[in-house]
Hints:
- By secondary structure, this protein is an alpha/beta fold.
- The protein contains 21 helices and 22 strands.
- The strands form five sheets. A six-stranded parallel beta sheet has the order 3-2-4-5-7-6, sandwiched between helices. Strands 11-10-9-12-13-14 form a six-stranded parallel beta sheet.
- Strand 9, helix 10 and strand 10 (about 260-265) form a beta-alpha-beta unit.
- Helix 10 (about 245-260) runs parallel beside helix 11 (about 340-355).
- The radius of gyration is 26 Å and the shape is globular.
- It binds thiamine diphosphate and magnesium ion.
- The site of thiamine diphosphate (TPP) has 21 residues, from strand 19, helix 16 and helix 18.
Amino acid sequence: xxxxxxxxxxxxxxTTAYYFLEGLSEIGIDxxxxxxxxxxxxxxxxxxxxxxxxxAMPSVVRCPHENTAAHMAAGYAFITxxxxxxxxxVDVGTANTANAMHNLYRSRLPVLLMAGKAPYTVNDELVGSxxxxxxxxxxxxxxxxxxxxxLKWEWTLPSGVVVKEALRRAHSIMQSEPRGPVYLMMQRETxxxxxxxxxxxxxxEDQFAATGGGGADPKLVAALAAKLMxxxxxxxxxxxxxxxxxxxxxxDALAQFAGIAVYEANMTNNISHDSPCFVGFSPDKAVPNADxxxxxxxxxxxxxSDVKTNEKTFWAHIDIDTLKPGSPMWTFPGNLRMQGDSxxxxxxxxxxxxxxxxxxxxxxxxxxxxxxxxxRDERVARAGKLAxxxxxxxxxxxxxxxxxxxxxxxxxxxxxxxxxxxxxxxxLQIPRKRPNTTMRSxxxxxxxSGGLALxxxxxxxxxxxxxxxxxxxFYFGNPSSGFAVSQQYKLPIFSIVMDNTGWNAVKQSxxxxxPEGEAKQGNEFESNLAPKVQFTxxxxxxxxxxxxxxxxxxxPAAIARCLKEVRGGRSALLHARVTKM
Length: 581
Ligand SMILES: Cc1ncc(C[n+]2csc(CCOP(=O)(O)OP(=O)(O)O)c2C)c(N)n1
Ligand SMILES: [Mg+2]
């Protein structure tokens, strides 16, 4: 007997789905966030099989809506840096994740999205053949097109023999910088094929590592350091450098050494706001006056329609993604483009500057630090002034509400800021000492904050997760699905809805384009939503604690009660009636 023949007769065999689950564990997928359908019969059966045999496989989190599943994976990746699995039902389930894929892609969060495909055999030729109505109508010509704009990689598994190789490839790509979603599709007949154990190879992380960002070309580092040596008004603008502790520290160290004012614009992951050089969230006034500007991990440093840049400014752009190939237009200046790990590159620049620094440079930097301190003090004073007005019953001032929240949250708490037109109040009023403790989606698909908070809670059960959304955002987030998962998997989060009775952003956008238009004249902005809704009932239906707060005087006690409930183990939903739009 040939070796091959012996191999085919002497070793036990299992289905592709069995190896698929094993392969997921091997690539470090701890969780599968699932919304199942007929396509998953082979996987569900093997889940039971592996459980019975006591074998490793990812834990399953069943989510009533795919929006929750995909955003939970995002939250888990936000905390751990590791992409997880999201398993959904053919084209329809995939379509329901499209909003989340947009958000993950734009937030550089990895995820392995997986879906079945309708079986391709119709006459029972193979195990898993079509056996129900939906198999005939759930096969579009191009299933992946539903999420393709947000993918780094996609494939349909052609045969179970390569299942582990395909999973490793998917993993290497999603984890490589800039990170993002990958998508694997699988037919039932492929999942039910049987393979001998020695036909399925293992692909270790050691040999198939993901690529990260490195340092920069020393020549570029020297060029930037030389510019900073003679700069009189340098600024630094970041949007998501705070996703890495070391980048936040490097920004602070360089800014303090060289006297650079630091701004966080259209942020996704915060840096430490404790840095003496951190001056706020809008660089608009500073940009035209800067002689040297450093863009660090930022997608939209300012809106060119509002800010005129100065042609004489020397711009360095340090980013894990300087090219922004996912955006047809990207129009921000860069005399130097340094792609790589921003923290490392800034450390290189600081080393170079330290080697070059003259007493004159040090004196000038110290003088700039005093000016920066004034800017910083002004921002703190402005925030205090805004929060001093508490609002009135039925119209709580969001600044006051957020300031009260800020007083009682610890430094480890994480804010998922989906406040839309009140997002600025969240940023301004809640002190953030630690980096990556305020997250805003890099994408624009509303309905993400609940799922992210739940996924983050799963990854970091000891930390307080605070979801802050508008009333519009709350609807988009499929809250019944989110609260169901919170209850079933014991993931308590604190949700705050800032209810201004509608889509203020839509109204404001109409006013920006047509300041004196017909919409304004008629006060017709098509933005009002149901005014008398009791959002608390949505949470209560799933065992959450609900509290409505309408009088500013009740805010501190309401927040305290909600936090107590969350610490006690169940989610709390605070419905705050804030200043109307
Ligand atoms: C999925 C999705 N649909 C529509 C929009 C467009 N949109 C942007 S902001 C906004 C209003 C959000 O309302 P709310 O959360 O109450 O915040 P507010 O504008 O009132 O501050 C809408 C509808 C979007 N961003 N995402
Ligand atoms: Mg609103």
